[in-house]
Q: What sequence folds into this?
C-alpha cells in the first residue's frame, strides 16, 4: 500500500495546478498594473507640461508663482 491514496494524489495535483495558475495570473495582473501606472505618470507629465505652457502663454512666470505661494 502506498503512502498516498489516489484521491490524495489527485487533490495534491489539483492544488499544485491551481497555485501555479494563480501565480501566473498574479504576475500578469502585476505587469498590467505597473504598465497602467507608467501610462498615468506619462499623462500627468503631459498635463503638467500643457498647464505650464498655458501659463507661459498667459504671461505667468515661475517667479510670479513662487511669490504667490
A:
Amino acid at each position: 500500500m502506498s503512502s498516498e491514496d489516489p484521491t490524495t494524489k489527485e487533490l495534491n495535483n489539483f492544488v499544485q495546478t491551481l497555485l501555479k495558475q494563480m501565480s501566473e495570473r498574479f504576475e500578469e495582473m502585476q505587469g498590467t498594473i505597473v504598465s497602467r501606472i507608467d501610462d498615468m505618470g506619462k499623462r500627468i507629465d503631459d498635463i503638467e507640461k500643457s498647464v505650464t505652457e498655458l501659463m507661459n502663454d498667459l504671461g505667468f512666470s515661475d517667479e510670479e508663482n513662487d511669490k504667490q505661494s
